[in-house]
Amino acid sequence: MTIRVLTGITTTGTPHLGNYVGAIRPAIAASYQDGTEGFLFLADFHALIKCDDPARIARSRLEMAAIWLAAGIDTERVTIYRQSDIPEITELNWLLTCVTAKGLMNRSHAYKAATDINEAAGEETDHGVTMGLFCYPVLMAADILMFNAHQVPVGRDQIQHIEMARDIAQRFNHLYGQGKELFVLPEAKVSEDIALLPGLDGRKMSKSYDNTIPLFQGRAKGLQDAIAKIVTDSRMPGEPKDPDSNSILTLYSAFGTTEETAAFRAELEAGLGWGVAKRRLYERIERDIGPMRERYEALIANPEKIEAALQAGAAKARAIAAPFLAALRAAVGIGSFTAAPIPVDKAEATKAALPVFKQYREADGRFYFKLNAADGRLLLQSHGFENGKEAGQWISRLKQEGNAVLADAPAQLAENISQDEVAQALAQLSEAE
Ligand code: TRP
Predict the structure, then answer these.
(1) Which of the listed residues 84, 96, 161, 190 should we mutate to test ligand 1's pocket, taking the one with most ligand atoms within 8 A of CB?
(2) Residue 235 and residue 242: Cα distance in Å, rounded?
(3) Helix, coil or strand: residue 147
(4) What's the CA-to-centroid distance between 171 and ligand 1, angstroms?
(5) Are residues 40 and 181 in the same domain?
(6) Is 154 in the pocket of ligand 1 (CB under 6 A)?
(7) Which of 35, 159, 184, 375 could form a disulfide linkage to 148, CB 3.0–4.6 angstroms apart?
(8) Is 200 inside a domain boundary?
(9) Is any ligand 1 atom within 6 A of the Cβ of residue 46?
(10) What does each of the 433 residues of the chain score in pLDDT, given as a tens digit?
(11) Quick one: CA torsion of 388, 389, 393, 399, rounded to 10 degrees?
């Protein structure tokens, strides 16, 4: 089975090194695993929830697209697209909204964070909360469920959203699946080792702490300058260092191998100066990032290449999303009037194409049964029985024992029948059970 791996990045900012290590790199790595199929998208509808500065969103999505392409996404194996290029996602968003409990959304961390701040500030609970923010997890569920993703690589802060997507999928499956799983239940995939990269001050690298290291911005010098700002203690070169007293080693370990990292740790403990340590860190990161940065700059200089890649991705994505959405529309009762109806009940639909036993009572007061072929032709007609139970027993015996029953009881069952056709019909029925 092919594992579908899907992830999205909100296009409100310029990704920093933490975003690269925590989200982009693992998604790209996962996409190269055999047996996987990747979906990577720019969550620009989500961006509108957080940001009302059009220029910033526009710049961010261009940069994000260039970053992913430059970072080595294989556009053959991975479908890369803008969320806003897939109208099916917003339609699915509505279908899901209609089955999502408001109470579930009340418990969303993002929403609760906003209301907590309001309450602490003595404001009204929902002050400044838009419906976009409140329903953020539903749109995210639509992103994921649209492509029936199995795995969603995300940061820890997003785990709750994936759980909500599962809840919503389960509810939808239960209501409309007729026993089938319309949606795959997705799983969050948090890369355990370095899901959260520390920033310059040792806290989680985040724009809100203003402690980030840029990915490509400012070129090599930007990287070098940021690393120079990592907070260290004032131990002099030659003095043994505590490698865990700041973020240098952890940042290094996000790029270096286990051996490289162990060697670096030993050097710090042996007294490597912080200045030299920062230079090492810079060089190690640059070894990975430098070649990508070159590709990135070439792409940014040719936006038509990026546009073409995203258009191709959108076409691939929609080829999956459009037929699936049509089936989902039909499942909830808003399908086309003329398209072949999606069976309300698969069993019923199969029955229609199968031979069928019918039991009935005639005006003579006796009980009869007959076997009709799938096309309605009469294959077998019983004589009248005193009671219905007896007729029923013949049917069960025919179903269980097949044609042999006819040899046993020709008198009760009609003559002039094609034994072969009856045998075939009975076999068909037992296969379908
Ligand atoms: N909410 C995610 C974030 O802020 C971005 C996102 C939107 C996403 N839709 C998604 C991530 C679907 C994974 C899957 O990081």
Answers:
(1) 161
(2) 10
(3) coil
(4) 21
(5) yes
(6) yes
(7) 184
(8) no
(9) yes
(10) 889 999 898 999 888 999 898 878 877 887 788 888 999 999 999 999 999 999 999 999 999 999 999 998 888 889 999 999 999 999 999 999 999 999 999 999 999 999 999 999 999 999 999 999 999 999 999 999 999 999 998 878 899 999 999 999 999 999 999 888 999 999 998 866 545 789 999 998 988 899 999 999 999 999 999 999 999 999 999 999 999 999 999 999 999 999 999 999 999 999 999 999 999 999 999 999 999 999 999 999 999 999 999 999 999 999 999 999 999 999 999 998 887 655 555 545 444 578 888 888 888 888 888 888 887 788 888 888 888 888 888 888 888 888 778 776 656 676 567 778 888 888 888 877 7
(11) 60
Domain, as residue range, for 396: 352-432
What CATH number does residue 264 fall under?
A: 1.10.240.10
Q: What is the DSSP string of 224-278?
A: HHHHHT-----PPTTS---TTSSSHHHHHHTTS-HHHHHHHHHHHHTT--HHHHH
Q: Which residue, chain included where needed, has tokens 């040899």?
A: 407
